[in-house]
Amino acid sequence: RFEMVGVGADKQFALDAVAFAAQPTISKDYRNVFHRKVKARDMLKTSKTFVINRSTFEFGPLLVGRQRPDDKPHTEHSEQLHITNNGPFPLTVNFSFLHGGAGLCSALPALHAADADAGSKPQSTQSQRPPSANGGGYASAAAPASLRPSGEPVFSMSIATMELQPEETQDLLLCAYPDADGLYEEQLVCTIKDNPQPVLFPLSAIGSSPAMEVSATSVEFERLLLKRSDTKRVTLTSKSALPLTWAISEESLAELIGAGAEAGDQDFRLDQTSGTLRPGDSTDIRITFFAREAQTVEKSFTIEVSDANAELGVQQTLDVSLKAEAYSIDVDVAWPNPDVDGLDFGAFKVVDAQKTSMELINNGKYDVGFRFIMRKYPVRDILTISPAEGTLPPGGSREAVEVVLKTEHELTLTSNTDLRVQFTEILTGEVLQDLVMPVKLSAHAVFSRYAVVPRGINFGPLVYDSQKERTFDLTNTGEFEFKFSLRHMDDEPASDKPPPPPPPTKGGKGAAAAANAKETGGVVNLENFAVSPARGVVEPGGTTTITVRFSAGASAQSFSQTMAIDVADRSPDDDPLGLLYELLAESCIPGVATTDYAQIFEEQAVVSRGDFGVTGLPQNIFAEEEKVFCFGSHMVGQEVTERFKVVNPFKVPCTVNLRCVVQGGGGGGGGGGKGGKGVTAADPSAGLSFDIEPKKCVIPPHEHRYVTAFFLPQSMQIYRAVFEAEVELGTDASTKMLCFELLGEGTLPNLVVQQPLARTDDGKPLLQFPRLLVNWTARLPIQLFNGGILPATFTLSPPADSAFACASAGQKLTLDPKTSHTLQVLFKPTGAGEIRSSMELAVMNNSFEDACIELEGEGFVQDVAFEDMPDDADGEALKLGEVEVGASSSLSFTMRNHSDVPHRFAWPSLPGVTFSPSVGHIHAHAAKQVVVTFCSDKPVVHSAVEVKLSLQRIQYAPGAETDWDDTMKVVKWLSDAEFKAHNEKLRRAEEAAAAEAVAAAAAAA
């Protein structure tokens, strides 16, 4: 706050001073600087993206050793940064790197490949080579020295200086070309002139060379007997952050399998020799050794690793050595089945023990000791071997060995080698490990297997005293036949032991057939259920159909029983109490809903009590207290239909007979309608006005059917009948029959002319219009009233004379009961004189209500008349409406001279209202359009103000018959004095006209 004091004065003055200080600056918002942004992402999966949680722009993995082109850098190695001047001043910004572009290089965590199947990995040792610079793979001994950081700049930029105007944006091209493996971190330093605070943008790039790891550098195969093969697996894992390619060198591959070797002559075979790996991925090379002859084989092969496009050539080599041996022995085994290499016990039931044998043969010169080894479950617990050990004499001698298999559980062995034969040298006791022989065991022990479809039977509801049969299938899904039996779930199961064989009798085969017949058949009775057969035998893959018969009771009742199905030789854990099988059924009595009136009359109204007065019956209602359905009052001879809903709320279908019974007295009129079909009455010859369709229907359980009731009144009277819906086989009185009364009335429509009130001498309605100028229009109403109880449909014929018109004439209109309707009739005379016409009122379905309405009017003419008045004009009254002060509103009409003499006309002045033209001539039989404009510069109100047009007959001098009005202008040049005098004259004339108009209005009021 500064103060200044004037010299020689005591007054002080206070001045406020405000200043703003700012520095040149550029935008540091990553959303403006960088094209792509993510909140968080794996560093190895990022490519040219700003990672928000690390606040770093990351190029991601880049290939080491790639040279930057002179013209355009590689797309994956370059990115545009948007540099924006968001300050108020022009600026100069210099770009540099904090570490000179070389950045800080550090190792990355190792890549993790997907774990391979541990059981298929070779058991040799892993390579012990040191990790590469990226901390991921295993470097080859042949890795080039260029993989170590050179210290040269890794990051570069397109320009070092940039000048920016306020709000200007320019792009800065950044490039990154790592020269070694590892994470390079750098910072782009943006130094702004006149701003001591530089702007830093952290940058990073990952240099990655093709690097791969091999799971084993040495693969050793176990000794193999001749004519056998073995397969080992070597896993290759990518330790590079970029895709790479690998291939076995052609020289080592030719040395391994032999150049041009025939199929089957190779010692080794590889399933793949080249491929591509993504970062962290693994692949397996399956190496198969073939024992063709007794020998020891030692070979190796070399794996060459390159980048994905082989742009930089071979970057790594890996050597894998192979060692295998094939041999022959003089000890042999003779299997019981020459076609099976091992012991195959086949398939059998768990409860049965199996026995087989094999022979050990010594073709050598000396004794050989043998011993059977069983070290693992389940072989150790299920096999009994005799003898389990001994000595084999030389010279081709044979030793028989018996093997017994006994198990208590289901078992499947497929070429199991847990049983081995171990041979020893008798004199020294040395175990010959190379002669240990596995014995392949195959066995399949099973329990009885079965399936039941369906797993239960529900007969559902049945009509009382009826029967129904259902079946289910018992299928043998096992490999052996089994016996089955049925029983109540609470009964004791039958013994699985077969009965003792009967004493031999004469009859041979017939006796055996009789014994087999006893194993099948029988019936099991469970309350109202009968199941057969109660026992039987099912072959493997076969199916037995079991029939269940249910006999419904005499009353409504539910039945539920559970039986047990016992299958012989099944697993003790599989349905130990037998397979429980549920049987359900229900006995029902058919019927329909008789008291649910809301459903029965869902398309009509249901009231507790009806009001059937003398003024007309209510339409389409059901009165619960009276049990009466009322059709209402309807036109005589017109058929009415209503639908009723017959509901079956029970679980069994029902057959319903429907009929309509006419009550005595108050019967219908003459014939017609449906001819009385399906109706019972005391007088069969009497015509009936009620009918029902259909006469019979079948309603499924919990469904409904709609029946249609027809009402056709023959005369003006009340009709009554009884609706009956009777259920066949229904025994319950409350649901056997649906019964209620039908009520309807026949009547005719009624229509009365309330306006006009005037009548002619013969009593016809008379619509009399006032005298009208020719081509003027007047409207009068015709009001009709429906005093009946039915809607009345009518038509009004058009007037014969064109001077009368009615918009509704010729249309078919409907008038509801106790309502009125007004029609407008227009009168527009086209000539002078009285005009008469008439309109015929015709009421449909009741010709007694037809009427003729007489129309009278008179037209006259005058010398000058107004025509083409606005639509909202009332006679000769113009409605200019409400207008804002200073705004204007205009209307137009036509002034026509009907005489043979020309007239002079003049319109008086009214404040705010002008007529154009206001003065002029109108020739004989000519017309002139007049525009009325309402515009005032102050508030003014005109309500029913009468403006009188002044007319004078005139006669033109010969040859001077020229049209004229004050809208026609003649230019006359005036001096200033003449112009002022002219304006003053006009002003006085307007004031006089206004005063005259006000006086005329006051006199009229």
From TrEMBL:
GO cellular component terms, semicolon-separated: axoneme
Residue ranges with Pro residues bias: 496-505
Pfam families xrefs: HYDIN_VesB_CFA65-like_Ig
Keywords, ordered alphabetically: Cell projection, Cilium, Cytoplasm
Disordered: region residues: 63-85, 116-145, 490-511
Compartmental location: Cell projection, Cilium; Cytoplasm
Entry annotated with the keyword Cytoplasm: yes
InterPro entries: Hydin-like, HYDIN_VesB_CFA65-like_Ig, Ig-like_fold
Protein name: HYDIN/VesB/CFA65-like Ig-like domain-containing protein
Taxonomic lineage from the root: Eukaryota, Haptista, Haptophyta, Prymnesiophyceae, Isochrysidales
